[in-house]
Amino acid sequence: MGYTFRKKIMWIICGILFALVVLEIVIRLGGFIFLSVQEFRNKLAISKKCTYRIMCLGESTTMVGGKYSYPIQFEEILNERNIGINFSVINRGVPRINSSYIVANLEDNLNKYKPNMVVTMMGSNDGSIEYYKDIPQAKSFIFNHIRTYAFLRTLWMHIENRMHQKGIYPLNTGMSNKPESNSRNVIEEERRILRYNDELKGSFKKAVRSAVGDVKTYMEEGSFEFEHNNLNEAEFSFRKAADLDPRNIWAYIGLAKCYRLQSKLSECEEILKKAIKIDPQNEWAYFELGLCYKDLENSSLAEAFFKQAIKLNQSEVDFYVELGILSGQEANWQQNEEMLQKALALNSNHLVANVELAYFYEQHGRCDLAEKLFKRALALDTNNAWTVVELGWCYILQKKYTEAENALKKIVLENQYNDKLYGSLALLYMYMGKYDLANKFHEKANMLRVQYCNQFTRQNYIKLKEILDRRGIKLVCVQYPLRNIEPLKKIFEDQDGIIFVDNEKVFIEAVAKNGYGEYFVDMFAGDFGHCTPKGSRLLAENISNVIIREYFRK
After folding, report:
1. 537 and 396 inside one domain
2. What is the rounded distance in angstroms from the CA atom of residue 265 to the CA atom of residue 144?
3. Is 353 inside a domain boundary?
4. What is the CATH number of the domain that holds 539?
5. What is the pLDDT of residues 288-340, one digit of tens each?
6. What is the mean pLDDT of the chain?
7. Torsion-angle region of 52 (φ positive above 0: left; ψ -120 to 50: alpha; else: beta)
8. Does residue 235 lie within any of the structural domains?
9. CA-based nearest residue to 423, from 506, 489, 516
10. What is the value of pTM for the model shown?
């Protein structure tokens, strides 16, 4: 009786799950806006003789702006100062990446551009999960290709997140919902995951070996290791499967995913070309090759392979989403909007498509449409702080200050340690003329940033400095506009020889005098966003002043 009842419940759950739309998020964001223009400028910079070469690293806040980006204006200002040195500045900003990507590609950039100094402004993308991008399960080969598994994984991750918000942690880790130490929480969580993974891995492999043959065994083990972010072991298993069955297209695709996530892009390209020769009609091989070329910063080839994937399968939403994102990065706005609209026509509840199209409308001043899509995205993911921040910005642009306040304060209650939300509230109250409240929330955001420094940002800054020190290259650490410099200094509290650039005071004074919109086009980071040409100029001037004063002693 009990078994029959449980069986019925399972069938009901499966029925509900299959009735839902799969929030299957496999987007790897990256690429460049106006890539060819930026690369041309970089090549021009390294071709100049007898110059002091500076390389700027960062995300979209470094990259965007074309001739008005801060690195371009930075070079102009340095050379205008006439201190007896000719400067060339290389812009190596990459949209929508995190500090891990920057460090992983640092050696290649140093070898290619040979800078005398590196200026970094990074970390703004480290503190948030982008559509499950940083969850190991979302990188899983199974997650990407088996829909039922994706359903169950996403549902379980949602349940776990809700449990964590209520202070409930499985396996008796003893964690509470109020972190005493960010690093302690990270360590405890890692230990819990490792214990769980080891136990699960052993029983999983034993079951697989007893149930399937050799090739299938390696494929399942490769998928399992990939799911748990053990890329070397996953690579070994997929390679074994390919060796045993040289025409196994999915073994090559799994292997290519491992290569791409380890930045082995030439190997990734080679194996996918081999896969396409074996099966020219496999749309996923073309899609993965498009992602590979996107990471290789070859936008034209990435676009061509995304389009080929769509040609072979016109019902796969993620193909349209990736092509739409790539088009936006290249400022091909018509295709950007068209692809995202097609994605939503196929699946109106696709989280990424909703967010990306909303962001497109927000950037183009169509805040009423952006507002609707951000609201839909929030209905799909109720605790996504980034979406609330962008919705708040939509409200602010429409002068719906009460709606913005209600939306931000509501989610703050469930995200009491999210500094971006407090920064957003500080900005909102500046717009409302409530300066006491603005100062209160600004200080709250600064306190959290000092107290709970993101561990990934800390580790990657330290790795970056170690690499530069080995090469004798000077490091300049730039804090984001309106942000306090202390969290950045705390990362290097036991080290010296670093130049720090504080952009808090200069931007607070400028915004107070001329308004936020004079210097920023959005507020994606909560209390700051992508700069206008005027904002980039102010940033470039401040960095120039600090470097000339503290390093060149002029």
Report:
1. no
2. 20
3. yes
4. 3.40.50.1110
5. 999 999 988 899 999 999 999 999 999 999 999 999 999 988 889 999 999 99
6. 81
7. beta
8. no
9. 516
10. 0.67
